Amino acid sequence: MASLSVWEKESFFAPSDIVIAGSGLVGLWSAYYLKRRAPSLRITIVERGLIPSGASTRNAGFACFGSLTELVANARQMGEDQMLELVEMRCKGLRRIRKTFRDTDIGYEQLGGYELLAPSVATPASPDLTNIDELRSAIDRFNRILKKITREQKTFRLQNEKIGRFGFAGIQYLVGSPAEGQLHSGKLCQSLLRLVQSMDVTVLNNIEITGYEKVNGHLLLHTQHPYPLIASQLLVCTNAFARQLLPQLDVTPARGQILVTSPVDNLPFKGTFHFDEGYYYFRNLGDRVLLGGARNLAVEAETTAEMTITDTIQDELERFLREVILPGRHYTIEDRWSGIMGMGKEKMPIISAVNDHVFCAVRMSGMGVALAPVAGDRAASLLMGDG
Q1: In the CATH hierarchy, which top-level class contains the domain 6-58+186-250+346-383?
Q2: Which of 4, 53, 202, 298 makes an SS bond possible with 44, Cβ 3.0 to 4.6 Å?
Q3: What is the CB-side half-sphere exposure of residue 72 using CA atoms within 13 A?
């Protein structure tokens, strides 16, 4: 391999104040908030792929904070206070995205969100929400406790009259949420990338940090290339892949599979939709349908960092599409892909110091779009010693 020129050594590969591992949403937002705090910082983002390699550009493009049954389940699992803290982080993040970028630049549309409830789907975490009285009670309670966070008088509302209009089959209740939106994940990442590069952040692609060691008070970062990377601090933002550098973290990869249909004539719905505590999710993509999820059908098999698709999940997604979302309609499947989310025993992100020189902001639990701005801000505060 060719040796570096003096120009390269003194520019692209010059020692950095901070190296950020991962150019996904959290890494980019972290660089943005670090530069806002200290514009003179020399920051380099290192990405192992040509573009972000986890879920940032491979998600469903939901600008959401959690469906009703998902939040009911979260409250039972983690306690109401932590659930509310998490929802507040998500809502703050979504507001920051729209404050930072024009809606047209990131493909943002606030078309509202919905949750489909079927009599056959009653999970251990929310066993009673197919009962209309229990459902109304849950809606009233969550509207009350979420009012200050979402800034909506009614965060959730029963909208059963739309079931027939949307053409869904086998659905008993429909819960709407006007605060929910959708965006273009690729355009969001591109906009963030352009923004941080305009702030003099260096981004290096096709470099994977495989380890690090402390040498003369600095970090020497090991990669697959012979070129040295030197930093005063390292921030790990590789989410699902964080344990490759920090094996002690409670972060587990979870694959999410997605498919997209051909254009559907007179598609009767627009917005973002959730089913089965958010394990199934779909939205309109213009006049196409994007559908993902169903990993709860094969949890062990989908606990993987392999970015492939499987017949088990894709067949189930096609069944759900055919029987529930678009019964009797003509379409073909035009695209399929997968992304890798970072999960763990807890839902809260890990934003912490590993030691004096190494920090992390990982485990977005499938909500990276909404959480990344706040996670990046908190990570920046941590590295700067003011948080």
Answers
A1: alpha beta
A2: 202
A3: 25
